[in-house]
Amino acid sequence: MAYYSLADSEKDSKTASFMDDSEKCGGKRTKLKKILIISGLIALVAGGFFYYKASSIFSKISTGSSGLFSGLLKNESDVKGISEGRTNILLLGMRGSNMPGGSMLADTIMILSVKPGENKAAMISIPRDLHVEIPGHGTRKINAANAFGEEEGKNKGMDLMQQVVQNVCGIPIHYVVTANFQGFREIVNTLGGITVHLNQPFSETSQFVDGNECGGIFSLPAGDVKLNGDQALCYSRARYNTSDFDRARRQQDVLVSMKEKALSLGTLADFSKVNDIADTIGDNIRTNMEPWEMQKLFGIYQKMENPGIIHKVVDNGPDGLLYSTMLDTSDGPAYILLPKGGNFDKIKEVCQNIFNEQAIQSITPPQNGYQHLEEPDTPQDIKKLQKKLQNSNTNTNTVSANANSNTNKNSNANVNTNTNKNSNSNKNSNKNDNKKKKD
Questions:
Q1: Of 273, 226, 275, 287, which Cα lies nearest the Cα of 254?
Q2: Which helix (H) or strand (E) holds 326?
Q3: CB 254 within 8 A of CB 232
Q4: By three-state DSSP, how is residue 91 classified?
Q5: Residues 123-148 pLDDT 10s
């Protein structure tokens, strides 16, 4: 006889249900494990690729001999300048090999200083027309040092520029990085463009007319302006309607904008962009940093939280450290810049103490503007430039004479005032004496 129990039936049902849920959970856990394993493998492969890519790119752009793996035995304090609290990197921009117009002349000369302990960075622009002593080549414009060095051997230009800038600025230059126009243009395009802010419309109507570069006449509206690679390059090169000093100021703003875009989450998370930027860097940028030094220095900068940036352009403005003049050379008259006072002491002082200045959002020209003078190309240009310099010197002397005149007037006024005061004092003193005698 068979007995049927409802309780047993419910129990079996619950057991079956529990087993089904357990199997489902087990299946989910197995699936999750597979996903995690696959994700881990993908991350490992991606990480390995990025490490290989970084190692390959760093090795390609470095003129050094050690590899990225040697950095495993190094600390951040082994990066030059870090133990002293400040690392100085010389940035050089030029047209590039086999390009017309002085391909190896350094059009952009800028010192980037990083001070991690104070979460600060500084950018100091040196004008290309500064007349300096270039070892083995006499006194020449500073931008020629790179070209002279390259004539002695590949990548020797960095060494010579490093030596010259150290002599001018009075600070150790730990590393040098060079970049050409093509690399600059491609990086900006890969980033999807950059944005700069213009307080007023910008135009260059002369510089690019010959050869129809930048469309001949290059102009931008006021406000926040998005620039592609070609526009960013034209904006960073333009100087005829403004000046070389204003160009240096704009170059600093452009580099800051590029840095912010490159380190943004949108760029770093985009594999294709990172890969393309790495390839562009490998083809167009060179440095005397060892690969492991690049890796360590990048890690140091990443730890800095939105560092304040100090901007400086060494210029010939009203309160500047330089003055403009003409020099007769074997190639004819040349426009050059010389330090006020006849030496580089003031420039050294500014470079050495740059971190005592206040960090600012962006650099602006002096209130009275830069003195805008250009290299003469024709006899007419030479006469115009000589006249302009004479007027400039006359105005400077007039200002000094007026200052001296005012000083003399003030001095005379003070003398007269003091004399009158003394005279009145003497009169009062005599009155008192007479009164005392009467009493």
A1: 226
A2: strand 322-329
A3: yes
A4: strand
A5: 999 999 999 999 999 999 999 999 99
Contact 237, 247 (CB under 8 A): yes
Task: Decide if 154 contacts 128 (C-beta within 8 A).
Answer: no
Other beta carbons within 10 angstroms of residue 227's beta carbon come to 19
- The answer to whether the pTM exceeds 0.85 is no
* 195, 160 contact by CB (below 8 A): no
Residue 180's nearest CA partner among 157, 207, 151 is 157
- What is the pLDDT at residue 305? 86
Distance CA 192, CA 274 (A): 12
Greater model confidence, 374 or 117: 117
Q: Half-sphere exposure of 91 toward its Cβ, with a 13 Å CA cutoff?
A: 17
Report how far residue 207's alpha carbon sits from residue 234's, in angstroms, rounded to the nearest whole number. Answer: 10
Residue 89's nearest CA partner among 371, 393, 300, 359 is 300
Measured between alpha carbons, how far is residue 423 from residues 176, 221, 416, 426, 433 in Å?
Answer: 69, 67, 10, 5, 15
Nearest-10 crossing angle of helices 156-169, 144-152:
140
C-alpha span between 340 and 399 (Å, rounded):
16
Instruction: Quickly list DSSP for 105-148.
Output: S-SEEEEEEEEGGGTEEEEEE--TTBEEEETTTEEEETTHHHHH
Half-sphere exposure of 290 (CA within 13 A, CB side): 15
Question: How far, in Å, CA of 363 to CA of 191, rounded?
Answer: 23
Sign of the dihedral through C-alpha 57, 60, 64, 65: positive
CA distance 227 to 187: 12
Distances (CA, A) of 288 to 69, 70, 154: 17, 16, 12
Residues 225, 197: Cα–Cα separation, whole Å: 6
126 neighbors 171 (Cβ within 8 angstroms): no
User: Could you give the CA distance from residue 379 to residue 333 in angstroms, rounded to a whole number?
Assistant: 9
pLDDT digits (tens, 9 = 90+) for 272-296: 888 888 889 999 999 999 989 998 9
Taking the C-alpha atoms of residue 387 and residue 399, their distance in angstroms, rounded to an integer, is 18
Residue with tokens 């580099």: 255
The CATH classification of domain 74-390, taken from the options 1.20.810.10, 3.40.630.190, 3.60.20.10, 3.40.50.1100: 3.40.630.190
Q: Is 62 helix (H, G, I), strand (E, B) or coil?
A: strand
